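pasting input
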Amino acid sequence: MAAAGGKTYSFKVVLLGEGCVGKTSLVLRYCENKFNDKHITTLQASFLTKKLNITGKRVNLAIWDTAGQERFHALGPIYYRDSNGAILVYDVTDEDSFQKVKNWVKELRKMLGNEICLCIVGNKIDLEKDRHVSVEEAEGYAESVGAKHYHTSAKLNKGIEELFLDLCKRMMETAQAEERSRGNGASHTSTARRGVQIVDDESQAAMPAGGCCSSG
Amino acid sequence: MDSRGERRGFSLQQSDLMCKKGCGFYGNAVWQGFCSRCWRQETQCSQAKQIEDDRALAERLQREEEAAYASSRQEEHPPPQSSRTHSVPIVKRLFTSAPKTPARTDAGAPQTPLSRSTSLGRQPSADRDHVTQHFIDFLKPFQRPGYDIFKQCHAFVENIAHKKVAVRGEDFSDSVQDFYQNISENLQTNFKGSPDVMDEVERYVMGRLYEQLFCPDHTDDEKKDLVIQKRIRALHWVSIEMLCVPVDEQIPKVSDSVERAITDLIDLDSRKVPREKLACVTRCSKHIMTAIQGSKKAAASADDFLPTLVYIVLRANPPRLHSNIQYITRYSNPSRLMSGEDGYYFTNLCCAVAFIEKLDAQSLNLSHEDFQLYMSGASSPSGPKAASSGHSSQNGFREERRAAEPQRDTDLIEWSDGQELSVLGLLEEPPAHTHTSDTFTIDSDNIGGDSLPPPLQPQKFTG
């Protein structure tokens, strides 16, 4: 469901991570440029969309927030089905949340293979002095699983634009590679299902009445 | 003696009161002297005749149109493109004359969800005619391409309806999805991919095929519906605190939103088109968001939303939930389901249902023993005590439901297996009498209360 008609890409990105790591702040900051704003205009921060223009191509980004509580963990597959990218957020001051990210990565790779672009995000770098997850460890791990690592602070609005822009570019590359491998005109057949034509009026309409028997 | 004298005062004979058909029941002037049963038969006959007439008219028009089309081809043997000029008046004629089939006003009038769901089986053809009519009206401005679309959709509907499509096990979802794919490719070239047309196509096709495709006989959808319904009923004791729902129902505005969310979720079952069903889910979700925002004074995140949705599903216990989810998954326009807001909220609903199905002691932070006790109905968590009985409406409503729930449960389990519509009616029926929260708490402590004598009836003392 990547490229829909011409040059517009539609991507679905899921946000995964434990509760309280700042998933919601991250996406609110990105889409609305707000943090802990008293003046709330957005009703919800669980489904947000953003339109981008990257190197002349239009990109529609749909960001799906997921419930981070442990008891909803088993529901993950329902959420990340058909997604093009996943943002795995942890809190740099919370070792546990990093472990959760590792679990998610394992699961995603197992279920979706390498189709999905993974971003591991260490949030809350404004609390650098309380850091419990070392930069080397996190970046090393990300590389070992083929994910990219980012440091962000939703509070100070650091690193967030870069994160999403980078992710979009990678998703576009993946989509383009997929199109190429499927040959030309892939954008149309990308969502095509095994196509047995069922409704075919034309065959009847195009057949002239008694055409097969008429001579000359 | 007195009564006899009074009888003479009426000029009516006993026989005048009886049904005109002589079936032995009493008749009623409202039903033109028939009894209710005979009246229904009469009206059904006349309705069926009306529908038959309409169909005959439509078929005649179709034949005329085809004949005219064929003759215009025979005369000149033009290539299909150039025949367009000739066929336009014919198309126009079909499109303009078709509306002359009497548009039934009753089918067009907005019906309440309740009457809709109960009359599902009763007037399908009137509804269908209306759907067709609407579709034709919509496509009329598009002239020739619009007519082509209509023909294509009509043929598809007929094929499915008469099961001409060869599929394994009567599962038409692939056929329908392939059809959507074909149509959308067609629209891309002829209509520049206008989403409106696609929506109308879905509305027409699914409006016509709803009876056949919703909760079909060959699946176990119906059984699963009942399983979920029983499961939700068995979970009636789950409280807002156990789920950690960030909603404060003491705030009137919030509880109002909660009620609206519940109503919208129940409304899901009364819609016929997948898109409209999805819209119900989205409306429900929006109300939930409002409720959360009203309680927390912050934008609602998924961490807040999903538990609240679970709570709403538990409270609403929407009829035929499984069937509805299956129907949407199978027959919705895929682009709507995969992306966009509707898709997101629908996914959350699926998650909530999956959660409810698998819910255990751990997911409610309860001990295993407590969970078993509550599930078996042997005990119930100490609910809001008498102190909260002052907060009338919303708490009262909850208590009432809880108190009424177990009784309804046993009734249904013994009786049901299959009677979906009656179950519906029962669910939507308000509980006959209200329990105050006091009686509820007293009763709940009374384990084994079955052996007690029936409760005392209040007695009136005059004087």
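fyi Helices of chain A lie at 23-32, 76-80, 95-112, 135-144, 160-182, 186-189, 201-206.
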